[in-house]
Design goal:
This protein is of the alpha/beta class and 384 residues long. The chain folds into two domains: 140 residues, Aspartate Aminotransferase, domain 1 (Alpha-Beta Complex), CATH 3.90.1150.10; 233 residues, Aspartate Aminotransferase, domain 2 (3-Layer(aba) Sandwich), CATH 3.40.640.10. The protein has 15 helices and 15 strands. The model has no long low-confidence stretch (mean pLDDT 98). The structure holds pyridoxal-5'-phosphate (PLP). The site of pyridoxal-5'-phosphate has 13 residues, from helix 5. GO terms for molecular function: cysteine-S-conjugate beta-lyase activity; pyridoxal phosphate binding. Its EC number is 4.4.1.13. It holds the Pfam family Aminotran_1_2. Its cofactor is pyridoxal 5'-phosphate.
Length: 384
């Protein structure tokens, strides 16, 4: 039995995934396979470090020590071959707040910001809610894989000030190749466009694939801002701790200025402890997790093959699976009806991910195997 087989009691813990279903789906009797966190305990080492910190009150203001940057930097070098300098690091309670900060710090009101659809919805809202204009380029499907529309990208980069890249890509799990990333980075540089690379999913990589940080692929990284976090990798989203990495001092200054305007000063005490212990002691746990997710993926892959008209977009990364149900010809409302009312399955439907997302389903498989099997049974039932 794997450590990940243990079923945890998450109801009643203020879990967004388990306790907010009524608000989101109108009913709370669904099997929750939506919000991007995992139904697994974080590494033992993290729990231990946090318990130790818990025994060292009081919990007054805590600064992020230089050791934190060193630990993250060692992780990035070991896992992804990317050498970063401790001076390049800033911190943020989350990657979504960092997207908002980058938008505000590095563009002006009314400026245009580009992203690719389908996309994780805050890529839209953080641009629009900060009074910038959203420009979209739609990914092209080729052999059940997303490809970049290079001509459209080249055209649109001429008009925008910033490009928000999701690398690896949520919702499809696509990992962009080193060549693609280099090309994107070069194109952005040529057009004087900041490249913001959200790499929050970059540690959850399936065995056949390899993630390359955009700043590593690029010839020149001064215009690149990268976000990393232990939240997806180690299931620590509630700790609200993430990092912003920018090699250019001017860029960092602008980001810090915006953080200053918000009164943001430091991370939470437990966020710091969690982040440091995860990156310094969590590697073995992560290796086990990836094997477990591979097996969950295989269950879903086989299950979907048995459902007429449903196709899995094979992921390189992340426990979020992107399932093509367009052949079923259901409207978004009908799809919700069969998923939520008939099958009692709490998954996301594709429309909110923007153009190209219609008719897709996003399913989170980071749960004990028995729950994933139950989820597959429900998915079959939905489309019987
Ligand atoms: C691509 C991407 N960025 C950011 C986030 C959320 O980041 P945070 O919780 O640090 O704001 C998610 C969560 O699902 C995500 O998928």
């Amino acid at each position: 039995m794997s450590i990940f087989d243990t079923e945890l009691k998450r109801k009643g813990t203020y879990s967004v995934k388990w306790d907010m279903m009524k608000d989101v789906f109108g009913t709370d009797d669904l099997l929750p396979m939506w919000v991007a966190d995992m139904d697994f305990l974080p590494p033992d080492a993290v729990i231990k470090a946090m318990k130790k910190r818990m025994e060292e009150p009081p919990f007054g203001y805590t600064f992020v020590p230089p050791e934190t940057a060193r630990v993250i930097s060692a992780w990035l070098e070991k896992r992804h071959g990317w050498k970063t300098n401790a001076a390049w690091y800033l911190y943020s309670p989350g990657v979504v707040p960092s997207i908002a900060t980058a938008v505000r710090a590095l563009t002006k009101k009314g400026d245009q910001v580009l992203t690719m659809t389908p996309a994780y919805p805050p890529f839209f809202s953080m641009v629009e809610q900060n009074d910038r204009k959203l420009v979209l380029t739609q990914l092209i499907e080729r052999n059940t894989r997303y490809e970049i529309d290079w001509d459209d990208l080249a055209q649109k980069l001429k008009e925008v000030k910033m490009f928000l890249l999701c690398s690896p890509h949520n919702p499809s799990g696509r990992i962009w190749t080193e060549e693609e990333l280099k090309k994107i980075a070069d194109m952005c540089k040529q057009e004087n466009v900041y490249l913001v690379s959200d790499e929050i999913h970059s540690d959850l990589v399936y065995r056949h694939a390899k993630h390359v940080p955009a700043a590593l692929a690029a010839e020149d990284d001064a215009h690149i801002i990268t976000f990393v976090a232990p939240s997806k990798t180690f299931n620590l989203a509630g700790m609200q701790a993430s990092a912003v990495i920018a090699s250019d001092e001017e860029v960092r200054k602008k980001i810090q200025e915006d953080q200053g305007k918000q009164g943001f000063f430091t991370l939470s005490t437990f966020g710091i402890t969690a982040m440091e212990s995860a990156y310094s002691e969590g590697e073995e746990w992560l290796e086990q997790l990836i094997d477990y997710l591979e097996s969950n993926l295989e269950i879903v892959r086989k299950g979907i093959q048995e459902i007429d008209g449903l196709y899995l977009m094979e992921p390189d990364s992340t426990y979020l699976l992107w399932i093509d149900a367009r052949e079923k010809g259901l409207s978004e409302d009908d799809m919700k009806e069969v998923l939520y009312q008939k099958a009692k399955l709490g998954v996301d439907t594709g429309e909110k991910y923007g153009k190209g997302g219609e008719g897709f389903i996003r399913m989170n498989i980071a749960s004990p195997r028995a729950m994933v099997e139950e989820g597959m049974e429900r998915l079959k039932k939905a489309f019987e």
